[in-house]
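A brief tutorial aside. Many learners find it easier to grasp structure tokens once they have seen a single protein encoded end to end. The record that follows does exactly this for DUF3311 domain-containing protein. Read the sequence first, then the structure, and try to relate runs of similar tokens to stretches of the chain.
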Amino acid sequence: MTTGEPGQPRTDRSPWNWLLVLPIVLPLLTFLFNADEPRLLGFPLFYWLQLAFIIVGVTTTTIVYRMTK
């Protein structure tokens, strides 16, 4: 695979790739959502925090994509 320039090998060794660890590790920290309170619009913490994890994942993926493009 090449980067688009002939003779240049593709490299995926960018420090920005380490940012992708955040959406993997964040949901594994159970102490963040091991509670029923607070509630947001009647939904317990667990449900709206899962939506927040999705937003963090999309944001970090977008940042890494743009910085390593």
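Self-check: The chain has a mean pLDDT of 87. If you spotted this yourself, you are ready for the next section.
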